[in-house]
Amino acid sequence: MLKTVATVVLTAILTSAFWIFAYGVARSPQAEQARVDGRVEGKGDAATVQGRGGPLEVAESVEVGPSGLAIPVAGIKAAELEDTFTAARASGARRHDAIDIMAAEGTPVHAAAPGTIEKLYNSIGKGGITAYQRSEDGRWTYYYAHLSAYATGLTEGQKVQRGSAIGFVGHTGDASPDSPHLHFAINQMAAGEKWWQGTPINPYPLLAGKSVAR
Description:
two-stranded antiparallel ribbon
């Protein structure tokens, strides 16, 4: 009898853990702590934490891929992503080396993983308003481009958590105003490499959990 009860309890625990993972919804510790301060009006599920440059939003619910990275645009599901990593750009002169996540102008953009904001840069005629984030272990950078604006309080050197506010979807730089989107890239960083360097890694399989064509 006791063995049967233990088996049932263990099965329930494992099933619950599976569905938490399968749905890919995670709540950051910062957002959980900040719940006592209330929600940020007009921004959906979000809470406020005190950042180095002022209050920062942390999304309470983010869509998380199998790699543990959050899809960095609010409201976007894995099934909505498209693999544009190898698409040609500049009339075929170069590879995209990123994915474009299409969303309405002004849609919140949040950090895909914990780390530090390494560089805030306006790349005129290219990426527009951009943010470069270094991972906690220093081995990766996450690049957010074509933003319409930065989140209030975002500064270089700012520590962020997965779900922390980065900015808002836009069409700055060379993006078309008819197709606002987030240009999202991941670079693998060798020792000593700077924010503009690194080896491009396809974000699509990490966020969507799907293989890519070779």
